[in-house]
Design goal:
Elements (H helix, E strand, L loop, with lengths): L2 H12 L21 H4 L8 H15 L3 H5 L1 E7 L2 E4 L8 E2 H4 L3 H6 L1 E6 L5 E6 L7 H8 L3 E2 L2 H7 L2 H19 L10 E3 L6 E3 L5 E2 L4 E10 L4 E6 L11 E4 L6 H13 L3 E12 L5 E10 L14 E6 H13 L1 H10 L12 H11 L1
Helix pairs in contact: 8-9, 11-12, 11-13
The chain binds nicotinamide-adenine-dinucleotide.
C-alpha cells in the first residue's frame, strides 16, 4: 500500500462520525472526509500506536464501511480450514477477488487487525457465499485450504495467532446467538468484537479462559517431567496444563494442577510466555517453568492422564532437535502413530516452554 492509501485508511478509520449506525454498526452510505490534515504526518508505515488506535476506533465508534472493506486483505476460511500458500503462510486475498457483495461479506467476516503498511486484515468464512465459492476462491488465489491444526503448527507465529483468533471468534458467534440475560436473539457488530441483545441491549464479548501450562523440572535440573493424555497422539508427552479456577492466581492454579495430576509439591513458579489456543474453545495459555521436589513419589491421576514420566534433559533435547529439523516429517509421523517418544510440535506453547528451558 502506498503512503496515499495509508493516509486514506487512517482517515477512514479515525473519523469520529456523527452518523447514527444501524445495530450491526454497518453503514454502507458513509463516505470519507478530507485527509489533508493528516497527510503531512505519515510516511509509508504506521506505528503500532496508530494502528491500535485505528482498530479501536473501528470497533468502538465508526464500525466497518465499504471503503474499509475495499482496503482490506482477507484470510479466507472454508469449513474451518484457512487458505495458505505452499509455504504455510496466509494466502491473503483482496476483497474484489472474492466477488461478493460487501453486505454478505461483512455478515461472514471479522476484523482481525492491521498490517504495518496500513492494510486492514479480515478473516472471512466463504461457506455462506454459495456452492461455487470454494472453486472460485481457489481459481483466484495461489493457496489451498489446509487442515487447521496442521496450519497452526506450521505457520509463522504471528500468522498462527491471527488464524487462532479468527477461529475462536467465529466459533463464539456461532454458539452465542442469544442473550444469556433475557434469552432474546443478539446481533453482532460489524467488526465481530461483540454482540448486543435486541431486547435488553446487554452487550456480550467473546469469552477467553485462562489455562496455566507448566514445564516441571526437579531441583537438580537434569530431569523434566512430561505427561500424556489418552487423546494425545501415540508417543507424545507434553507439559501439565489446567484451567485456572475463579478466585485463584496463576501460581495457585499451577500448584494445584501439579498436585492433582502428579502428586508433587511445587517449590517455585516462573512465568515465561503466553499463547492464544482455540482448541476446543478460546483459551489463553499462560506458560511457566516450575521446580518441584523430585524426591516425592509420582502419584498420577489416571482419570486425567495416561502416563507421567521423568525424562533426562538429553532425551528431551534429542526429541526437540528432531522436530525442529524435520517439522513436516514429524507431523506425518504423529498422524500415522509412532512408538517413539516425542515432544509437542512447534506452534504449541508446550514446545516453546521446552525449547526455552533447554536453551536457558
Ligand atoms: N498449546 C499447548 O501447548 C497446550 C498443551 C497442553 C494443553 N493445551 C490446552 O490446554 C487446555 C487445558 O488442558 P486440559 O488438559 O486441562 O484440558 P481438558 O479439556 O482435559 O480439561 C480438563 C477439565 O477442565 C474442565 N474444563 C473444561 N473447559 C473448561 C473451561 N473453559 N473453564 C474451566 N474448566 C474447564 C473440565 O472439567 C475438563 O474435564 C486445553 O484446551 C488443551 O488443548 C495446550
Amino acid at each position: 500500500m502506498n503512503s496515499r492509501n495509508v493516509c486514506h485508511s487512517l482517515a477512514v478509520a479515525l473519523r469520529f462520525g456523527t452518523t447514527k449506525l444501524n445495530r450491526s454498526g454497518w453503514n454502507p452510505s458513509r463516505r470519507c472526509n478530507s485527509i489533508s490534515s493528516m497527510s503531512g504526518q505519515l510516511g509509508g508505515q504506521l506505528s503500532y500506536v496508530q494502528r491500535m488506535k485505528m482498530l479501536q476506533n473501528l470497533r468502538e465508534k465508526t464500525g466497518i464501511t465499504e471503503e474499509v472493506i475495499r482496503k482490506g486483505k482477507c484470510l479466507v476460511y472454508y469449513k474451518g480450514d484457512p487458505l495458505l500458500t505452499e509455504n504455510f503462510s496466509i494466502a491473503w486475498m483482496d476483497f474484489d477477488d472474492l466477488q461478493v457483495e460487501p453486505k454478505l461479506f461483512l455478515e461472514n467476516a471479522m476484523l482481525l487487525g492491521m498490517a504495518e503498511r496500513g492494510e486492514f486484515q479480515f478473516a472471512v468464512q466463504i461457506v455462506g457465499f454459495g456452492k461455487e465459492s470454494k472453486q472460485a476462491v481457489l481459481s483466484k488465489s495461489q493457496g489451498s485450504f489446509t487442515d487447521f491444526r496442521l496450519s497452526l503448527m506450521m505457520m509463522p507465529t504471528y500468522e498462527a495467532s491471527l488464524a487462532s483468533k479468527a477461529k475462536a471468534i467465529f466459533n463464539w458467534h456461532r454458539r452465542n446467538t442469544h442473550c444469556a440475560k433475557c434469552g432474546s436473539p443478539s446481533v453482532r457488530n460489524s467488526t465481530a468484537s461483540c454482540r448486543t441483545c435486541h431486547k435488553c441491549e446487554e452487550v456480550w464479548y467473546p469469552t477467553l479462559s485462562p489455562v496455566g501450562i507448566v514445564l516441571v523440572a526437579d531441583t537438580t535440573k537434569s530431569n523434566l517431567l512430561l505427561v500424556r493424555q489418552g487423546r494425545h497422539p501415540k508417543g507424545m508427552y507434553s507439559c501439565i496444563a489446567g484451567y485456572v479456577d475463579s478466585g485463584e492466581t496463576l501460581e495457585e492454579g499451577i500448584r494445584r494442577e501439579v498436585a492433582e495430576e502428579v502428586g508433587l509439591t511445587v517449590l517455585s513458579v516462573d512465568y515465561k510466555a503466553s499463547q492464544h489456543w482455540s482448541f476446543p474453545t478460546s483459551n489463553l495459555m499462560i506458560g511457566c517453568h516450575a521446580i518441584v521436589n523430585g524426591n516425592e513419589t509420582l502419584d498420577v491421576d489416571t482419570s486425567e492422564l495416561e502416563d507421567a514420566r521423568w525424562f533426562s534433559v538429553e532425551e528431551v533435547r534429542r526429541s526437540l532437535d528432531s522436530i525442529k529439523t524435520n517439522p513436516l516429517e514429524t507431523m506425518s509421523a504423529i498422524k500415522e502413530g509412532t512408538d517413539q517418544f516425542f515432544v509437542p510440535p512447534r506452534g504449541t506453547l508446550a514446545h516453546s516452554l521446552i525449547d526455552a528451558w533447554l536453551s536457558g
